[in-house]
Amino acid sequence: MNIDGHLKHIMAQNDDENESQLQLISIEDSSNASYIAIPTSESPQLLMALPVQHIETNFTPRITYKTAGGKPLLQWWRRRTSLEQFFILLTFLMATTIIILLTLFLSLNDDITNLKKKEFSNTDSNKKIFEDIEKRVCLTKGCIQAANNLLMAMNLSADPCDNFFEYACGQWNRDHMIPDDMFAYGTFASVRENVRQQMRVLLESDEQPKSRSIKMTHIAYQTCMNVSKIESVKSSQLLKSLRQLAKWPLLDNNNNNNKNWNENLFNLTNILASSRRYFGNEIFFQIYVYADAKNTTRNILYLDQGALGLGRGSRDYYLNATMFAKHLNAYRKYQLDIIKLLLDDANITYDLSQLIIDLNDIINFETKFAEIIVPEDDRRNSTRLYNGKIISDLYTLFPKIDWLNFFYQISPISIHNLIKNNTQIIIGEVDYMYNIATLINNNSNYLLANYIFWRIVHSWVKILDGRYEDIKHVFLRVMTGQQTKSPRWKECAQVTIGLLPLAGGALYVREHFDSTDKQEALKMIANLQEAFKELVDESDWMDEETKKVAIEKAVSMINNIGYPDFINNYTALDKHYEKLNFTSDDSYFDLLRKVLMWSQEKEFLRMKEPFDKREFEVSPAVVNAFYSPEKNALTFPAGILKPPFFSGTYPKMVNYGAIGAVIGHEVTHGFDDQGSQYDKDGNLLNWWNVDSYNGFAKRKECIINQYSSYVVPNTDYKVNGKLTQGENIADNGGVKEAYRAYRKYIKQLGHEEPHLPGFQNFSNDQIFFLSYAHFWCGHKKEAAALQQVLIDEHSPEVFRVIGVLSNLPEFSKAYNCPQGSQLNPLKRCTVW
């Protein structure tokens, strides 16, 4: 559960930041896409690249003046490269912004200076006038920066009581076009872009690293950047590895009259185990080691349903063929073009008509696969997903697999003594196991082999040479609206963070994180937790015992801020990576395989260890925030503790409106429809009084209905209120808690904060809500907006603003909204 993406059962990590943004880029299997940067079907963002994000503007000056020689400057402009034009415009815009801010500052400063020079300036009464002016307007660098961020985003002609998103973000969205190499862009994306830029500088530095782990980040980045070597290898290493895995009908049933592939030699156990171990692909099953949800002192094996080729949550693409015909046709063309190119690389001749028949069979099989996948909005009851079994039970559920052999193949030898027929395992979807077994039994080994191999290729296409990338990009253009490929350095910076999250994080925080920010964040968390406790105490629908348990859970939350301390100790950091070995001589393909094998081994070795609730599971360079129900832990990486969301130089009204609402969001996740199923120790346990839970259920149903009424911009779809309820509850609670914590701060301070420059006519409460809305400024391509509503647990940004604020009387009071207006409705929904 996170502010902008999906955090669930993390075993390793990468970015997924795949945020709603991260989740959208991941159109392959993506249950752990936010964290595992190895090329698995569960971590496709490495193969597809994260959304690269940089600030552009739709400002294009008309150049009509002439040079001394009489030639139009327009001709000179046209002779500039696109890169030169970009930097010229960027320099102009930066200079203009500096002049505006300097003028504003000097103007305000002159007013104060003039007052000082008045002949009455030495009198006590007039000194007070001067002091009052200084108190009324904050002129620090932080205040000027915060004011500029908010003011430049606003559309002051919009009615804040009708559409506060347009009021707070209208100008930002018009000034910041979606770059061609992205499908979405917003303030969140701009911060991620800044982090990637910072990582690029660090990774391209000539400074000799003092740590082996830090040196490995440089090697990983440089290997990814070595396009000439990748181009020379082409698909040869992938083809060689596929042939070592098993025989693939599409590769081996050509040239020799279909005699090279023997259906009777097909072994489902071996091919599924090898695809998982050597390629990271989990097609029909997701298998991982994580905390036992009913006893979080230990780790345990989990087995859950698999995911489709178009990603977790993508059932509608297959099952609504009329509405999504364009997308499925793009998938078919992408599949055909990739396989044709692969066959050409392998010097295999093929019958095109037969190839099309085989690939159509793959799509038809995947459509039947989609029919048995349980939709994500039906998977929010954690108790239903906790089905304790032992490994021997799997033979009854799915007899075609030799399960002990399967687990032995995918795990290190050192834990084989822990894997026996009576070893406990948690099954997520029992009916799915029966259904997938039936589906597999009803199809030929020939088709199954083609499908499994296709899914492996699909997951690894992104790391092949440019020919394959070009084909995939044509496909992504249809699925997300992204027009061009990302610059290589952006992809490689993100890949590096994903491959070596803690080493990359150590490199980042050493240069770009102030330890004082960590202390300020801890203070804010304590204030937000206190605000939540007050809301629980004041609730009239909870009995006293349930209130007591809820408060105990809130105060017991573990706080992970910035980064884990040990990464600043290079000896400890190197020990973390001591069994991971790769060098600059490795190809990109080999390097990724080595990280994959190392990561999978570390995951299974957890079976020998107790569950570590204090483990920092994400890279500090990630721009996101997280809550783990099994740990009852909040995590705020260094990457998100950055302007414009947070700064130690910002006034509290800005910080509480932005990062304060994020903190409150994550705190509230502990008490949303899913987090509320876990106790203070992270155990899946019902701690609710029946009447109190009924009151909770009634309130969350109100949230479901409210958000289900919203039509997603640029689509005919409505928000899935059931799927997004957890995030919506967290958004609503988070802002309410942040506002309460801010007002408590002001009460303790004894007076209001000075105004931001240029906002003298705004109350500080109004600035608080502006800061919250500014956090979500941004927009998406139509295809990406559609994909979000299908697969993302987060509501579109516009509804994260107006949906929340319409439920807050404090907002309508601050902006004096008339009753019955959009942001001051007659009916409101409140959970916390």
From TrEMBL:
Zinc in keyword set: yes
Gene3D superfamilies xrefs: Collagenase (Catalytic Domain) (3.40.390.10), Neutral endopeptidase , domain2 (1.10.1380.10)
Annotated ranges, domain Peptidase M13 N-terminal: 160-564
Residue ranges of every copy of the Peptidase M13 C-terminal domain listed in the record: 624-831
PROSITE patterns assigned: NEPRILYSIN (PS51885)
Entry keyword Transmembrane helix: yes
A Pfam family of this chain: Peptidase_M13
GO biological process, one term: protein processing
One annotated GO molecular function: metalloendopeptidase activity
TM regions (residue ranges): 86-108
Cellular component per GO, a single term: plasma membrane
CC cofactor: Zn(2+)
InterPro entries named among the record's database cross-references: MetalloPept_cat_dom_sf, Peptidase_M13, Peptidase_M13_C, Peptidase_M13_dom_2, Peptidase_M13_N
Keywords: Hydrolase, Membrane, Metal-binding, Metalloprotease, Protease, Transmembrane, Transmembrane helix, Zinc
UniProt similarity note: Belongs to the peptidase M13 family.
Listed name of the protein: Uncharacterized protein
Record organism: Brugia malayi (Filarial nematode worm)
Lineage summary: Eukaryota, Metazoa, Ecdysozoa, Nematoda, Chromadorea
